[in-house]
Write a structure and sequence with these properties.
The complex is a heterodimer of chains A (191) and B (576). Chain A has helices spanning 16-29, 77-83, 103-106, 116-122, 132-139, 145-156, 161-171, 177-190, and strands spanning 4-11, 33-37, 48-56, 69-74, 87-96, 126-130. Chain A has 191 residues and is of the alpha/beta class. Chain A has one domain: Pyruvate-ferredoxin Oxidoreductase, domain 3. In chain A, strands 2-3-1-4-5-6 form a 6-stranded mixed sheet, with helices on both faces. In chain A, helix 1 (16-29) runs parallel beside helix 6 (145-156), helix 5 crosses helix 6 (145-156) and helix 6 packs across helix 8. The radius of gyration of chain B is 27 Å and the shape is globular. Chain B starts with a strand and ends in a 7-residue tail after the last helix. Chain B folds into 4 domains: 2-216, 3-Layer(aba) Sandwich (Rossmann fold), CATH 3.40.50; 220-320, Rossmann fold; 345-510, 3-Layer(aba) Sandwich (Rossmann fold); 520-576, 2-Layer Sandwich (Alpha-Beta Plaits), CATH 3.30.70. Classes of the chains: A alpha/beta (191), B alpha/beta (576). Chains A and B meet through helix 1, strand 2, helix 2, strand 5 and helix 3 of A and strand 1, strand 8, helix 11 and strand 20 of B. Strand 2 of chain A pairs antiparallel with strand 8 (165-170) of chain B, so a sheet runs across the interface.
């Protein structure tokens, strides 16, 4: 199989590392060659955080560049818009509708653009926008938005349900497992 | 068993499987997880040292004592450890010694983009460079074998992409290794001139043997393609980009041993093609080597430059003229730079410095973020420890005028790393300098590592804790005081008093990092919109949880940890 690319983007602290780990484990169990690339350190402190997941028969570069992603999963609206150029033609964009002001907006140096979802759709991109934050809070904690969105992604792909469940068990601490399973189900149903 | 592993985790697995017994490192992105991961194996003794020099000397001591040993650091850490490295090249080892140095192509989390291969060449120490997690594990194990065979410490060079990408690794069992006997051997281990002279001869002979080894080792491999019109010589992460961009359109010489480099292998490969491209990130070291050995049909840096990462699109565009199509919104998307977290104890301190227009000699850590909007508090950031010594020089240059309005800021871990010696200089050479130690009880930026002030060691067990107040007094600073940076008025008063004083002083700004698990957060604060007058005093703090909506401040309840400094800042009592 030709290499497929999924980008997971958000704001530092939103849990993109857990999301990429979940997906990586599912793909590994499916028998693919898998690479997951993260950036640690400075950018995690409230900055834009990008994680790349690539899989196929043989994956070389761990990096995804503009025009290469089959799907982008975004935890925040502005980050979804920022990463739009990474989608290849016909790629899918899944995003949480949550908005977090970046520092230039907080200080008044810039404005948070309005109507981003409409503009993205108008650009001809297939957009799936979900209020992941509310669903996560419904599951028990705002922190589970990441798992809600992976639930959405699972609904548009066809990897066996038991692989996702197993990946959750591998990646989430036991005491938060039930909560995260609920968040995953809510995401799946939201699609 | 097949597992997805970070390059750093696979590196740690390699240490474990090779029977490594002693590990000493200092954290630094992107190298930190090697040591954190290897610490999880009970068979390995692992520690955080106060700095990279101490770590390398510890590892060398363990090697001389007969144990396979390791030390890990980031690229700039190797500058700190350069002193032991250049002489460890002469002494060689007893049991194998491996050093990890992680370069940060693209400067994701560093203050410069130096290429650590220069150190390997200058120190005459062999260096291997893996391209994925599987190779990390295999190269580490081989590096121990080669270290013992060639009597040299071996460096394994990592990069951000190799260190922080997960790929599939096949794990194996640990090969337990007995301590090798230690025998006194002054000619080998006492590097005074008479003995060092004979060891230098050994080093030069060893390099010749290593070059012979480089000609035939499977670490360097040729991947020929029938469809190739040109050849590529590459290494490390760049190999992956080359394969992705060019596939079978190029034959590839992949160099897994980057110091010393082979001669005949490169000459023979380059002779097969009219055009050969050298695709290496950062400096043109392989390219220059090619020219030095008479291989002149190479091109590299004139096409790809020596700045940042070289990704697949760059290679495909430059060598094949191919470009990917993509969609853009045509909308101005505001940047999202990293910021101090909600509840960060550094915020209150930097607000006080910024408000009073104080010149700030900064250092390396999360608090470097005090340099950006809206606080703009930091004037300089150079390297670990430079805040304190730099302040001393600044004050010696500008005298009293500067002494009363200039401070140094440095974190607890960075102070232990190399800030202490600067403070000794302030006391000894008598500058009226004010140093602020930002004691957040952890090494923050690299992701929460223990250090000599925290009372815990790498494995999480209780350890001796340096008492910063007593240490500063023992150094000779008489004025030492502690403030809580959540209390703005108290903090500001302390800064003003110490700057006004006519002798050197240390302020310890003490409050644990808000991200530490044991730190209890208060309930999120709310803005009473009836009381809020929209004056934006709270916005001056640069807290990512506070923003303005319709002329009133709002606090994001998912981010706020209830630190309360915005409450103190609000003049109309609108924050509840």
């Amino acid at each position: 199989m030709e290499t497929k690319s999924v980008m997971i983007v958000g704001v530092g602290g939103q849990g993109s590392l857990l999301a990429s780990r979940l997906l990586g484990n599912v793909l590994l169990a499916q028998g693919y060659d898998v690479k997951v690339s993260e950036v640690h350190g400075m950018s995690q402190r409230g900055g834009s955080v990008v994680t790349y997941v690539k899989y196929g028969d043989k994956v070389y570069s761990p990096v995804i560049e503009k025009g290469e992603a089959d799907a982008v999963i975004s935890f925040e609206m502005l980050e979804a818009a920022r990463c739009l150029p990474y989608l290849k033609k016909g790629g899918k964009l899944i995003t949480s509708t949550q908005q977090i002001d970046p520092m230039p907006v907080i200080t008044g140096a810039a404005q948070y653009p309005e109507g981003l979802a409409e503009k993205i759709k108008a650009a001809g991109v297939e957009l799936i926008a979900v209020d992941a934050l509310s669903l996560a809070e419904q599951a028990g904690t705002a922190k589970a938005s990441n798992v809600v969105l992976m639930g959405v992604f699972s609904a548009i792909t066809d990897y066996p349900e038991e692989l996702w469940q197993k990946a959750l068990e591998q990646c989430v601490p036991a005491k938060f497992l039930d909560l995260n399973k609920k968040a995953f189900e809510l995401g799946k149903a939201a699609k | 068993m097949k597992k997805l592993m970070l390059g750093n985790e696979a590196f740690a697995r390699g240490l474990y499987e090779a029977g490594c017994r002693v590990v000493s490192s200092y954290p630094g992105t992107p190298s930190t997880e090697i040591t954190e991961e290897v610490a999880k194996y009970d068979e390995v003794y692992a520690e955080w040292a106060p700095n990279e020099k101490v770590a390398m000397e510890t590892a060398l001591g363990a090697s001389i004592a007969g144990a396979r040993s390791f030390c890990g650091m980031k690229h700039v850490g190797l500058n700190v450890a350069a002193d032991p490295l250049y002489t460890a090249a002469y002494t060689g080892v007893n049991a194998g010694m491996v050093i990890a140095v992680a370069d940060d192509q693209g400067m994701h989390s560093s203050q410069n983009e130096q290429d650590s291969r220069h150190h390997a060449i200058a120190a005459k120490v062999p260096m291997l460079e893996p391209s994925d997690s599987g190779e990390c594990k295999e190269f580490v194990k081989l590096a121990f074998e080669l270290s013992e065979k060639f009597d040299a410490p071996f460096i394994v060079r990592m990069s951000t992409r190799v260190a922080h990408s997960q790929s599939i690794v096949d794990t194996e069992e640990r090969q337990e290794r007995e301590l090798l006997p230690y025998e006194k051997n002054a000619q080998k281990y006492v590097m005074m001139p008479a003995y060092a002279k004979t060891r230098h001869v050994f080093v030069e002979e060893r390099t010749k043997k290593l070059i012979e080894y480089a000609e035939t080792t499977p670490l360097n491999r040729v991947e020929m393609s029938d469809k190739a019109e040109f050849g590529v010589i590459t290494n490390g992460a760049a190999y992956q980009y080359v394969k992705e961009a060019l596939g079978e359109k190029a034959s590839v010489l992949k160099l897994g041993m980057v110091n010393p480099l082979p001669v005949k292998l490169i000459q023979d490969f380059a002779a097969k093609y009219e055009k050969v491209y050298v695709i290496e990130e950062l400096d043109g070291i392989i390219e220059q080597h090619c020219r030095n050995i008479g291989v002149n049909n190479v091109q590299g840096k004139e096409i790809f430059g020596c700045i940042g990462e070289i990704h697949q699109s760059n290679i495909a565009e430059k060598l094949l003229g191919e470009k990917k199509e993509f969609t853009e919104l045509g909308e101005n998307i505001p940047m999202r730079p990293p910021v101090m977290c909600p509840g960060c104890p550094h915020r209150g301190l930097f607000y006080c410095l910024s408000k009073n227009k104080i010149t700030v000699s900064g250092d390396i850590g999360c608090y470097t973020l005090g340099a950006v909007a809206p606080l703009f508090a930091v004037d300089t950031t150079i390297c670990m420890g430079a805040s304190i010594s730099g302040l001393h020089g600044f004050n010696k240059a500008r005298g009293t005028e500067s002494e009363h309005k200039t401070v140094a800021v440095i974190g607890d871990s960075t102070f232990m790393h190399s800030g202490m010696t600067g403070l000794v200089n302030i006391a000894y050479n008598n500058s009226n300098s004010t140093v602020i130690i930002l004691d957040n009880s952890i090494t923050g930026m690299t992701g929460h590592q223990q250090n000599p002030t925290t009372g815990k060691n790498l494995k999480g067990d209780p350890a001796a804790a340096v008492n910063l107040e007593e240490l500063c007094k023992a150094i000779g600073i008489k004025r030492v005081r502690v403030v809580d940076p959540y209390k703005l008025a108290e903090t500001e008063a302390a800064i003003k008093e110490e700057l006004a004083a006519d002798e050197a002083s240390v302020i310890i700004s003490r409050r644990p990092c808000a991200l530490l698990k044991y730190v209890k957060h208060n309930p999120p604060l709310k803005v009473n919109t009836d009381k809020c007058v929209g004056c934006k005093m709270c916005m001056k703090l640069g807290c990512p949880a506070i923003s303005m909506r319709d002329g009133k401040a709002v606090i994001d309840h998912t981010q706020c940890v209830g630190c309360g400094i915005c409450q103190e800042q609000c003049k109309v009592g609108a924050i509840e």
